[in-house]
Design goal:
With 227 residues, the protein is an alpha+beta fold. The protein has six helices and 18 strands. The structure holds manganese (II) ion (MN).
């Protein structure tokens, strides 16, 4: 071990249902992975290969509280399922991909939509809209051996008790094994990597005081307070 010249940053981790914690290495996020959401964002879902951006590992936020971020007046909720990898590699075949999955969790890809919109218009990276402090509220990790492959099931999000997003995991354009395989063609995947699998239609703004509740069949529900 080198002798660190400042205190080493802590390893980010997410609690696991049944005990222990999942240590996080990287967070990849797919864009526009449900057709109806691609359409609501102004794109044709039939003509696009998958694309990804990243959040920072320490943007994962298991606290149940989402502090409204600085420098935005239009922060949106995106209800998603996070996929946690126990192993990785390169050029992973689609048929081998599921063997790398440790488990799944409820997750919100909170987005500074106004800043993302400016970045899109200017041809700039999305990080300023996506990868900010506490921007990925996350529930506990459910091991795949207890919940199965999570390839179908209702995904929904309520704001203050009103359903805003409502879809099914089987509506993903790029399925979980396809995402893993695709990412592994461009990156060296490794244990601890996390993939946010996209959001169904119905994204919209939140304000301080709101209560968000995401539910996915098999993963239960998670409540997040916007402060
Ligand atoms: Mn998203």
């Amino acid at each position: 071990m080198p002798e660190f010249v400042i205190p080493a940053p802590p390893t980010v981790s997410v609690p696991v249902v049944g005990g222990g914690a999942f240590p996080v290495r990287r967070v990849y996020c797919i864009g526009r992975n449900y057709a109806a959401h691609a359409v609501e964002m102004g794109h044709d879902p039939d003509r696009e290969p998958p694309f990804f951006f990243q959040k920072n590992p320490d943007d994962l936020n298991p606290t149940g509280v989402f502090p409204y971020p600085a420098q935005s007046k239009d922060v949106h909720h995106e209800a998603e399922v996070a996929v946690f990898l126990k192993s990785g590699g390169t050029q992973i075949a689609i048929e081998d991909a599921m063997a790398h999955v440790y488990g799944y969790a409820l997750c919100l890809d909170m987005t500074r939509r106004d800043l993302q919109g400016i970045a899109k218009k200017m041809g700039r990276p999305w990080e300023i809209g996506k990868a900010f402090h506490a921007s990925a509220p996350v529930g506990p990790v459910h091991p795949a051996e207890s919940v199965g492959p999570m390839d179908h099931g209702r995904i929904s999000l309520k704001v203050n008790g009103t359903v805003k997003q409502d879809g099914d995991l089987n509506q993903m354009i790029w399925k979980v094994p396809e995402m893993i395989s695709y990412l592994s063609d461009y990156y060296v995947l490794a244990p601890g990597d996390v993939i946010l699998s996209g959001t169904p239609a119905g994204v919209g703004p939140v304000v301080p005081g709101d209560t968000l509740e995401i539910s996915v069949d098999g993963l239960g529900s998670m409540t997040v307070s916007v402060t």
